[in-house]
Structures are given as structure tokens and as C-alpha cells.
Write the C-alpha cells for this entry.
Amino acid sequence: MTDRIQTQKTQKRRGRKPDRRRELFLRIAADIDSGKLTGKLPGVLKLAGLYNSCHGTVQNAIRLLSDAGYIEVLPRSGCYVRRRLEVVMAGLYLEKQTPLNLPDAYTNFMANLGPLYQSLHEALGNAGISLSFEVIDVGNAEALRRLKRPGRHLVVNFPILEPERYYALFEDCSWTRVSGTFDEQCPVAHFACDNPAIGRLAAQRLMERGCRRFLGIGSHAIGLFRQRFEAFEAELNGKGFPADHIEIDSYQMNLPEILLRMRTHLLPCSEALSSGEMGIFCAADAFMQPLQQVLEHLPGKTEDAVIVSCDNNPYFLQNVTLKADEIDIGLREIGIEVAAHILSEPDLPVKRVFPPVLRKK
């Protein structure tokens, strides 16, 4: 009985130590993040006094801080605070634009680039670097000024028209561009989806499915969609097939307008859609929900239509039961590579596009 009580006491004592280590680690890390601790850290004995802790707990906390990248331990010299990199992902928007079915700019950004943000957040977090997020109206000069404060590296996504305008906005800070239409002339690192490859892959998949008539849904006025459609049409034309198109601009049209245009165009094609003769390429999965609404009310078995969708984010596919092959445009991979770039050479002007991957239904 006495041995069991002694064992329980020993286990309790052992169980408290990791909590103390972790608590002290978090306290010192918070002081480093706030700037209270900089440069060379005080010695172990002084730290123990400052944080009302014991010598052994301080040594264990120092190991945790070193593993997490907060400090660098130099033999026979001491412990030094590493420069803490502050990374902010910024979504720029134009105040007057209200995209399809999205209540605000934040929801729009996360719907389009959520997987990129999540993978970037995880990769930087594993290196002990936090990532924050801000949505900025391009016309708000004060918000832009605060965004670009010293000591930050910005990961920026902005409207795809007039890129030179945005390059000028950020010429006085450290930043990386993500997604949009790929631009070799971007003055900083640019990591983007391979939009032409997406269009080619969609055309090839629809031809594999036996389609002989082809329809694209999206807007030529939007640069990245135009790149996808131009490659889609070129691939089909090279095989002797024409490609039709429904011009849908979710920034300029409201939902009733979109539904009416889709229905007007698709109604005469009901039989071809039901038989699989006609295949559809949605340039973004945001078009899948209105497409489902239209197909549900067309004659024939149009729910079995052959569709390839360009997959940005599962957000757009909520409550959508219409099945389609999906092209993963590589947002997660972009986030991982951007993190690696920031951790190594944040000001090196790297240019990379990421190939899409087809996921069959």
C-alpha cells in the first residue's frame, strides 16, 4: 500500500514538470514576441529569478525555445534571440466589386485562396513563425500604410487588372505575390497557378469522356479565366472541335442574371447534355452552384451531364450535389513553397507556376 502511494506521488511530480516547462516556454516566447526580450538572454540563474522558476525548468524551457526557433544557443557564448519574422497575408480588393454569393471581401478571399492560406499558416507555424491575415480596400491609403510597416513580409493577392498599379504600391517593402495571372515581369517572387495547363487538362478530360460538343462557363474579361479558356479552345480546335462559351462575370452580374443566362443557353442543349455528347468546363467551382440550379429544371437527365470544374476551394461546393471531375489548381502546394521561400530568400525574385492535377469523380 505504501509503495503504491509513493508511486502515485512520483507520477504526480513527474506529470507537473512538463507543464512547468511549457508554461515557462510560453511566458518567455511571449516576451520575445512583444520585444521585451531582445539580443542576448540573461543567464540561467538570472532567468530563474526573473520568472520565479527553478534552474532545471529554465534549462528545459531554453531547449524548447531553441527547438521552436525563438533563440539560438551558441556554445561558450550564451543564448540569443533570433530575429522574429512577421508575415502577413493581405487580400486586396476593390470596394465596388461584390462577387457572386459572397457577403464580403474576407469571405471572397478565403473562398478563393483558403487552402493556400491554410498550408502557408501550417508551414510557417512549424518553423515557429506566426501568420496573420488582413483584407485591405485598395483605395484606403491609411490602411495600406499601416499594412506596410517595417519588419513585415507581405504575401499579397490583388485584383488581376493593372498589376503595375499594385507593384508600385509595394515597391518600398518586402513582399511576395501569389496566384493571379503569372507575370514574368513581377518585380518580386511570384507563385501562381498554371492557368493554360488547367484549360488544356479540362479539354483533354472532356474528350476522354467521349464528348463531341464543348461549353465553357466563365468570363473572358478576367485574365486568369481568359488564359484557361484560350488554352481550352486551342486544345479542342487542334483536334477539330469547336468550343462554345457562356460569358458569366460574377463581379458584374447578380445571381438572377447568371441563372437566366445559363438557362437560356443550356435549354436548347438539354438532349446533348443528357446523352453526354456535350461536356462543360467551369472555369471556377463558384459556377457549380448556379449550374446545378439550372440543370435541375431542364428536361432529361441533365444531372448526369459531363462536367469538369476548376477547384479553388470546397467552400464553393457546399450543398452542391452535382458531380464533376475537379482540377486541383495547386493552392496548397503554392502555400508550402511560399513558406519555404520566405524562410530562405524572402527578397529573391523567384517565378514559379504550379501544374494542376485532375481528380476524377
